Each structure stands twice: as structure tokens, then as C-alpha cells.
Amino acid sequence: MAKRLDREQWSVFQSELYQTNTTVVVTDDLILITDPTWLPAEIEEIREFVEERRSNQPVYLLLTHSDFDHVIGAGAFPEATIIASRGFNARSDKENIVQEMKEFDETYYIHRNYDTSYPDPDIIVDSDEQVLEEGETKITFYLAPGHTVDGLAAVIEPLGLCIAGDYLSNVEIPIIEYHSESYQFTLKKLDELWNDGKYSTVVPGHGLVASKPEEIEKRLRDSEWYIEKTKTSLEDPYVESAIFAFIDRHKFEAPLKQVHESNKEQLKTER
Predict the structure, then answer these.
(1) Is residue 237 in some structural domain?
(2) List of long-range contacts for 220-223, beta carbons under 8 Å, 24+ apart
(3) Which of 128, 138, 199, 243 has the maximum number of C-beta atoms within 10 A of its C-beta?
(4) Which residue segment(s) compose the domain that 157 sits in?
(5) Where is the Metallo-beta-lactamase domain (predicted)?
(6) Is residue 130 in a domain?
(7) In a domain, 259, yes or no
(8) What confidence tens digit (pLDDT) does each residue in 127-153 have?
(9) 181 near 139, Cβ under 8 Å?
(10) What angle do CA 31, 36, 37 make, to 5 degrees?
(11) CATH number of the domain that 80 lies in?
(12) How far apart are CA 152 and CA 123, in angstroms?
């Protein structure tokens, strides 16, 4: 059973694996599910939760990006209208992502009673501030590349809830799979939305939900600091000691040090 955080109109289900979060928003106007994951029993719990709370509202499924852990449960909601970015829909390596899902299930002898093909979006987000409105519920989307090429964030009004995808985690450092400047641009965008009062709570892809202003500020500043210091470390190796001290503050520092090495290799390709 997934860990669960409940609020009046939204709940966050956290998988046992990588503290991966699925958010379910329930209003009189719609139900929104984001990135359902990981294990079949966890996804079934989410599906039952949705069914118990659904009356006649339309169901939407937001996929924040195409990493396989964020799309592996999409097939459990065949009735949902899928929302994703243009980049998500245009990926040329969809078969590789499907293969990652199959390899994960085969490795752990997992059987799923739903399809694990690559999701086909019904609503494609092309630009910042694209809006979905149902009654009094408004969802505004923002392109969020950097971690991946096809990232997408969303702010749900009037709940003040930001679905950030794989940004602003308290258990992970920034993971730069696409490009560091894009990552920094996304952080700037999330920072501006925060300063403009567009959201008061952020749900990261992994880790704890943040609602205290000082915690949200800390995550924004820490992410910005880490990327800048990692860039500097390519020329000045003495900076590494400060980065390692930052990583050591995290509970799961061993895998994060591997992430840091991968980030440095990515930054070298950008030079």
C-alpha cells in the first residue's frame, strides 16, 4: 500500500519505490491523475480511490514527462483523457521506453492486468500558460524541459497546487538528462510562478510535498546552487568538496553521487 497524504481536494500517493508521487485532484468539475506509478497494487489503490470519488466528472491523466517510471501505470486508466507535452508525443525512442517498462516487470516477475504501451496523448501542450478549464477548476500548464526534453508542470487553481514533475525534490539533487540551461530556465519559471503567488504547495515527482514557504524557497535555491556549482567544478575541482557536503545532507547520498557524476558528464557535452 502506498503512503498517502490527504487534503480536502487532493491526495498524494507515494510509492515504496524511489518515493515516487502520484497526485489525484478531485473537484466537482473533474478528476486529475498525475504519473500513476509504480507497483500494480499501488496503482490499483489509486484506481479504486478514483472510482470511489467519481460521479460524472471527466477524468484527466497528466504525464509530466516520459521517464518510464512516470508512465508505467497509465494503461490502468483507459477512460482518462491523457495530457502531455508536444515533446512527449514527438519522442523518437518510444519503443525504448516501452522496453524499459517490460524489463522492469520481467526483472521483478511483475504481472500487470493492463497495457504498458507508450501513452498516446489526447491533449498536447505546446506552450506556457495553455489552459484546461472545467467549471470552476482551471489547470495552467508550463513547459518544463531540463530534466528531460519533454517535461511539463501544471498549476491547479483555485487550489494553489503545483505539479512540478521531477523538480524541487527533497530526496534528489537535480538530474540533468537533457540540458542544464533548460533546467535552469525551468527553475526560473517555477521561481517566478512562486513569487507571483500562483501556487502555495508543490508536489515533486519524488519525495515530500512542500507547503511551507521556507521549504519551497530552500528547494528552489538549492537546485539553482547545485547546477551553478557543478558547472564551476568542471574548471575548479576544489568546488567538489562543497557539492559533496550538499549531497551528504540527503538521506540516500550514495546513488546521488552517481547522479552527480552523470550530471558532470552531461555538462561536459554542453561545452
Answers:
(1) no
(2) 220/168, 220/187, 220/190, 220/191, 220/194, 222/246, 223/167, 223/168, 223/173, 223/174, 223/187
(3) 199
(4) 3-213
(5) 19-206
(6) yes
(7) no
(8) 999 999 999 999 999 999 999 999 999
(9) no
(10) 160
(11) 3.60.15.10
(12) 13
